[in-house]
Structures are given as structure tokens and as C-alpha cells.
Amino acid sequence: MQVQNLAGSDQWDRVKKELRNELGDDVFSNWFGRVKHEETTGDAVRLSVPTRFLKNWIQNNYEKQLVGLWKREQDDINRIELTVRGALRPRQLNVGLAPKAISARRISGRPGPFSSTPQFGASHGMSVIPCLADSNEDAAADFLNGASLNPKLTFDTFAEGASNSLACAAVRQMAAGHQGTLDLLYIHSSTGIGKTHLLQAAAAEARKTGRQVAYLSAEFFMYHLVPALRTPAFPVLRQAMRSIDLLLVDDLQFLHGKQAADEFSKTLELLMESPTQIIMAADRSPEDLDTLGDALRYRIQKGEVVGIQSTDYALRHDILKKRITAARRTHPGFSVPEDVADYIARYVIASARDLEGALNRLFAHNQLTKQPVTMDLAEKTLHDLVRIGEPRSIKVEEIQQVVCKHFSVTKADLLSSCRARTLVRPRQIAMYIAKVMTGRSLPEIGRRFGNRDHTTVLHAVRKIEDMVSKDKALAQEVELLKRLVHA
């Protein structure tokens, strides 16, 4: 059986590669990044996921595709069995408590000594409530408690720099309860840049002042709140919603499906009847969040939209200093020489989470071997995290902006169905550049260009390839646009 399982792991690696090619990086990362192969027995493959939400979503949307890919590896496979890893904690009842009197239940995770990122179950609320509320009061308690907070994620431990100063200032203002300036804030950035840290810091700060706060993930909203809104608990939930002073919704990119988006939009309207302030976060801008309905996207864009850029050297160095200082409070003998800190800040650039991972590795080596942290140790231990001389990741929206400016057209025109010659050529060029400069799949590029079919993108790519080979002036123009995107 062990040999079979090892073979199954190799097969799973190949299946994942095919899935990534077919679905694109974003969709694959969202839904399959945390799927693990457990065993292959008989005609079945058993995979595990961290939450019931992921289990249900994959079963409903990708089960046939998974079976088809596995059959290429092993012809007798006919079934995919999905299980949820780990046991859910039992829910504590709060029957009889009014919404304002319900205190937040928190489940503490076990992060590393430098970690400012909660474990999945704790940060996304999936281990807090294993089933729907058994009473109206309990449903209200579930909503008000939401996901648990990591006590390490505060404003004091957040490293502020040029890339995130605007977002940090806006979140601080809303956490302090300043009404009339910002009512709805939407923060977007790539993974691991600090969105969750800011939202949890705001929740902790607002609760200190006695404000009623609800911190939810999009998964929590879809899997717990939406079903509860259709039960007799709705009147009590409505009252609980109106008692909220600050609502925080994290990982909005996981809000999938028209029904969930419609319910979320209705909930926002309900909350806006009161003086509620709302902060939301996602891994992309609202116009690039394909799963949002038009009404919800419009409501978000009426608020304040703030992007957090990738960290620069100064900010990464500041993050490291804060994490090292925090570690030395409990481990005074631990130290990181300045040249090592400089090396990490310069070359571990993917995300703040990678910075923390780098320090966790050095810390673990120091504690286990009692050897000091040196440059030689850092180079050997962190080689897979170091990014020396790698080109930065190009986003489709960056390409669209450059092309729109160059051809004097709007992004709305570029994404529209208009077939005017003045728009068709820029649109095809933008699709071509997106294909050659990003790792996006044809279907994903099509979605970013007004939900076009992948065959449309393929036609555009082949068309521009052919024209560039014959038209020197066009070839130079396309090269210029590529350089502008890289700039």
C-alpha cells in the first residue's frame, strides 16, 4: 500500500500540473492550493481539504474534471473521495444573550515565533462553527463573533511604509470610529502583503473602544451567514446586523456565485441603514474580481478603493526588525546580524509571509543546534526563498492600462463588445501581450477582457503574431508597449 500511495503522489503532482494549465494560476491556487493526496485504493482516489466549503465546491464544480485527469494516469479510477482534514471544535452556545451582550469567542492558533499570519482555520472562521445555529440567539452570536483574531496582528506590530501608508491611514481612521469621512473601504493587494493584518488590527483596536465589531471571511459569510438568513433566526440576525459598528470582510475573492454575491449585496444595504462602517479586502481590484456581480462591484467602487503595492527594501527591513525585536522578548539570546537582515530584506521579496518564514527557519536552526545565525547559514537555509535577478510578475490590468493610454481608448472600451477597428486592434494587441508576458491561461485572459471565450483570445494572439512577423512598424510598436509594461 505504501508503494501505491507514493505512486499516487507522483500521479497527483502530474494531475495538479494539468489542472493549473487548464484552469489558470489564480483559479488553481484558490481551489486546489490546499488539496492533499491521501491515498489511492481500488478505483478511488482520496483527497483531503482543510474546510467543508472547499470540499463542497470542488465536488460540485471540478469532480468530473478530476476523475478525467486521474483516468489518464490510472485507467481504473472512477471516483474521487474528498475528506476534510482535522476535527472541528465543538461550538459553544450563547442562548439567551442579546446581540450587544455576546462576547467574542476566540480560538488561539499555534503560529511560529515570528508569524503575523493566523492559521487557516482560525483566520477564516471555519473551525469556530461546525454547524448552523440551533437557535435564533445562537445564530446572532455566530455572526457577531465571526472568525477569531490572532492577538499578534495589531497596529503596533504592523510595519508601515510607502507602499501601504494610505491603506494603513484609512484603516486606522475607521478603527477609531471617525464617522462621515469613510464608510466603505476596499483594500486589495497580492497575497502576503498585509491585508489580513490590517483588518485584524482594526478589529482589535475598535473592540478596545467598546464598538461592536464583526470580522468575517467570505467563506464564513457564504457557508454560515447566508444559510442562516433563510431560517427563523433572520429577525434576530437583522437586529444583530444593525448593532454592528464596524464590519470587516476578508478574502473577498472567495465569494463565488451569483446567489452569494446577491446576498452579500443585500447584507451591505441592510448594514448601511445604520451608521455601520465596512472594510473589505481581496487579492485583486474590484474590476478584476470576476466573481462579483455588477451591483456589488458598483457599490464597492462607490466607496474608497486602496491598493497596497509590493514591499520595497525599506519596508521589508522594517518588518524584519519588528519580528526580530518581538522574538528577542521571549528568546533574548537570539540575534540576526545586520548583514543577514540586509540579505533577507534585499532578496526575499515575494511577500511578508516569506520574510517571516525565513526568520522562522533561522530561529529553528538556532534553537535546535545552538549555533549562531550567520550569512553562510542564511544562504544555505533560504536558497528557495531568495529571488535574485528574477523579473517582476506582470499583471493583465497593467498591460491594459499601458495599451489604453498608448491608443487613447478607455478600459471600458477595451473590454466592451464593440467591433470598431479603432478598438479591435488595441484589444488584440493587449491580449497578445498578456499571453506572452504573463503566465495566464487563455480562458483566464478571456475573462479579464470582458468574459470573452478562450478561442477569441487564441485568434487575437495568432493574428498579432502573424502581423508582427510581416509588419516591422507594428513589431516595433508592440516591443515599445512591452517595455512600457516592464517600466
Give structural notes:
With 487 residues, this protein is α/β, with parallel strands linked by helices. The chain has 21 helices and eight strands. The strands form two sheets. A five-stranded parallel sheet has the order 5-6-7-4-8, with helices on both faces. The protein has a three-stranded mixed sheet with strand order 1-2-3. Helix 10 links the parallel strand 6 and strand 7. Helix 1 crosses helix 2, helix 12 packs across helix 13 and helix 12 packs parallel to helix 14. The protein is globular.
| Overall pLDDT confidence | 78
Following the backbone from N to C, one meets helices and strands in this order, namely HHEEHEHHHEHEHHEHEHEHHHHHHHHHH
| Structure class | alpha/beta
Gyration radius over CA = 24 Å
Strand-residue proportion: 5-15%
Region (Domain IV, binds dsDNA): 367-487
Subcellular location: Cytoplasm
Subunit structure: Oligomerizes as a right-handed, spiral filament on DNA at oriC.
Domain Chromosomal replication initiator DnaA C-terminal: 395-464
Explain briefly what this protein structure is:
Helices cover 54% and strands 9% of the residues. With 487 residues, it is α/β, with parallel strands linked by helices. Keywords: ATP-binding, Cytoplasm, DNA replication, DNA-binding, Lipid-binding, Nucleotide-binding.
Which structural traits does this protein have?
487 residues, five-stranded parallel sheet, 21 helices, 8 strands, 9% strand, DNA replication
What topology does this entry show?
Layout lengths: L1 H22 L1 H8 L3 E6 L2 E6 L2 H22 L5 E6 L35 H5 L11 H10 L19 H11 L8 E5 L6 H14 L4 E5 H11 L5 H9 L3 E5 L7 H14 L5 E6 L11 H9 L1 E4 L5 H18 L7 H10 L4 H18 L5 H7 L14 H12 L3 H5 L5 H17 L4 H7 L5 H17 L1 H15 L1
Helix pairs in contact: 1-2, 1-3, 5-9, 6-7, 12-13, 12-14, 16-18, 16-21, 18-20, 19-20, 20-21
